[in-house]
Specification:
- The protein has four domains: 1-88, no CATH class; 174-228, no CATH class; 247-444 and 558-644, no CATH class; 445-527, no CATH class.
- The strands form two sheets. Strands 2-1-3 form a three-stranded antiparallel β-sheet, with no helix packed on it.
- The protein is globular, with a radius of gyration of 34 Å.
- The two termini are 62 Å apart.
- It has 648 residues and is mainly alpha-helical.
- The protein is built from 21 helices and five strands.
Amino acid sequence: MSVQDIQCPVYDLDNNVAFIGMYQTMTKKAAITVQRKDFPSNSFYVVIVVKTEDEACGGPLRFYPLSPDELLDAGNRSKTLEVVVSPAIDSEVYVMGMLFCLGIFLFFYVLTFLLACIENKRMHKKKEGLLKPADMSPAETASLLGKTPASPYEYGSFADNASTMSSEPVTDSLASTDANYGYMGQEAFKRRPISTHHIVIRFERSLDTVGRCRQESLSSVDEDDYDTLADIDSDKNIVRTKKYLCVSDLARKDKRVLSKKYQIYFWNIATIAVFYALPVIQLVITYQTVVNVTGNQDICYYNFLCAHPLGALSSFNNILSNLGYVMLGLLFLLIVLQRDVVHKRALMRNDVTALECGIPKHFGLYYAMGTALMMEGLLSACYHVCPNYTNFQFDTSFMYMIAGLCMLKLYQKRHPDINASAYSAYACLAAVIFFSVLGVVFGKGNTAFWIVFSVLHIVFTLLLSTQLYYMGRWRLDTGILRRILHVIYTDCIRQCSGPMYIDRMVLLVMGNIVNWSLAAYGLIKKPNDFASYLLAIAICNLLLYFAFYIIMKLRSGERIQCLPLVCILFTAVVWSFALFFFFQGLSTWQKTPAESREHNRDCILLSFFDDHDIWHFLSSIAMFGSFLVLLTMDDDLDTVQRDKIYVF
């Protein structure tokens, strides 16, 4: 089907119909949006040409000479054609679509601001209730009024001030008068004279203090320097191989070092985003220019029944609907920044709760997750400028990033000292994207490729399982096979002992079952859409680990507060609706352009957005909700000592 400006000659032959105007191949239905600017005469021809071979529209290529029956069948073929010309949407629909898209995501900004105000007001009232003057000791009152704190010899008890008193013999001035009064709680007491000749006061460090000093001595300003020492390795082996671990056992390294280590995640992904996005933008602009100049609408796989052009863009609505990823990613970054600032202020005033309680707060991975969400919106918009099989990885690359970063963040919560570095994590993600490209180009029906990928998938799963089970104390070197055989012999044959870390073993067994099943499915079915298959592997592993984390959190006696619980329920509902619209399949680059158009459908929202646009809306909201779950899930532990928080 060709749409041409009215002029002579009319190009209506198979060998010249593509010379001017816009054209598509079709089987049963097709749609072309005609813009007035492209036809100066305000009129046009609709030219229909029958192709000589079915192959042009996805049918089989016939072999010649044809049999008499085939010749008879080819001569009797006919089509009933109906051409419908309907007016396009006007500018008001464009404006309404843009306002709707902007308004639905600004609503989340307003809602976040209101919740922040309510929470701030609640915390302010809580502080006022805790710091009423009638309930405060004289020492606290003096400190609030800006006065010099009272001496330990005037207020308080020996237990409160033992760490500040000297171990030297007590002088006579302490017992020189009966007029000194102190306070024990709210009751005044009178100090008795003490003879220094009969009392020796000794202050011994408690076990907690000794443990803390040992932790501080083992933490390092430069992590790499200490990791090479044999005694530190020995200590790690003792600590990390305990049957029951607490977060304090895996949060021993210097906080400044870890903070900088995890900030590298953000700076690396920001650098990756710049160098990845610029050539992508240049490429899709070239694609769109070729479509506009040649008029060949078989290059891009749009939903042509709901593709609304704007300027040079052929399907503006599919690009606009990605705005949610960018706006909600930015909102998540602002929320993380606010938490980061509050935590740094607490550290500056040496707040004991911030220093010694709760899950160690490192925000670098959160910043990386927010940046990845914004980049997913940008690259998805680039993909929908001209969707086809050669640039589909643009739409999925940062989905792999998001899934990987979420798993790393979940693991970091309870294992801050032994989480993967940014360099190794991004190297693994780069390998995933590399295989994604290979799968799109070579994976279709290629048995050798699927065998290699499945073997690598299983081997990587086993190696990762070993590292997770032994808390990073299993070295990957030339002696690994010898150690594996030794463990199998001693634990499985000689002693027949069960696993020491049962919870971890359950998770890893389930993870291996899932991954081996996915590898077998890929090897047997060889799905054409390799990128989506790879994304399904990442999502299944993330969901498995998240479910394990929630179950173990509840088993450990922890609770989920109201806000994360609401976020979990809301996100689950939104994800279910989003996946429903995702699987509608309005177009597919796995088939020919003509076959893809058979899946095209009309707009369903405001006469402007189709099913895939609604998938963009809902999935961006669901990802934002998932990030909030990760951010707030362990807020119930903010006042719990780290030596009472279990590792799983």
